[in-house]
């Protein structure tokens, strides 16, 4: 039986790749952009869910301006906390599954081993606090039908991101100083979209327990290590990339020094974790290069 999917935040990088993945499956999907649906409006959310009658809702809508959230936390909370709460309430009424995309920023970022899905959250930024509020709202309202998928360091062809920026800068800068004291997992939005679709299908089949999953690539690196790999794929000299520290780029919101997430929970759903970040980057690179240097 064909399932119907509703994607909020469909105009973003992940939302676009998610719709493309669903289209490749031949399933029914509806994508709503920020202009189409304000998830902070409970009545609008209820109307959208009632109209489209989805089996699965994936919330890709979010306040992602990490630094701006430090001075506009109330507004960020409306989108990242109240929005998921509204979606969860509507899904609870209709019986739809809800996949809530979240972030590594719910952790303090001071770990030394990959954060497990059940590790205690301790956000150090307004953005992290608001995203954690969204997680809690979904899991509270949908204890049997809510799935939180935390991700990090996303890149893709459909929007601005670190990888595309480095591709651009390689062509105009002799050298680049890049932070080497933040560790994480570069994650291609195409890979994450695939796991979200598979998780949704497994949830509908009753084989994916509700709860928290970590949707990041396997392996780990720093922004400096990622940039050197980008230069290699461009055929440029990686020695043009020089390491620096976070102190060189002081920002309003603290960045997690360690954002590596563990992936053990996928086994419970019968789904393998996302592949190594280097393999994904190599496959993604032609589309990223075409998007940045058409």
Written overview of the protein:
There is one protein chain. The chain is α/β, with parallel strands linked by helices and 294 residues long. The chain has a single domain, classed as Rossmann fold (3-Layer(aba) Sandwich), CATH 3.40.50. It contains 8 helices and 12 strands. The chain has a 6-stranded parallel sheet, sandwiched between helices. It has a two-stranded parallel sheet with strand order 6-9. Helix 1 (13-25) links the parallel strand 1 (4-8) and strand 2 (28-32). Residues 6-285 form the RmlD-like substrate binding domain. It holds the Pfam family RmlD_sub_bind.
What are the main properties of this structure?
single chain; 294 residues; alpha/beta; Rossmann fold; 6-stranded parallel β-sheet; two-stranded parallel ribbon; 8 helices; dTDP-4-dehydrorhamnose reductase; RmlD-like-bd; EC 1.1.1.133; oxidoreductase; dTDP-4-dehydrorhamnose reductase activity
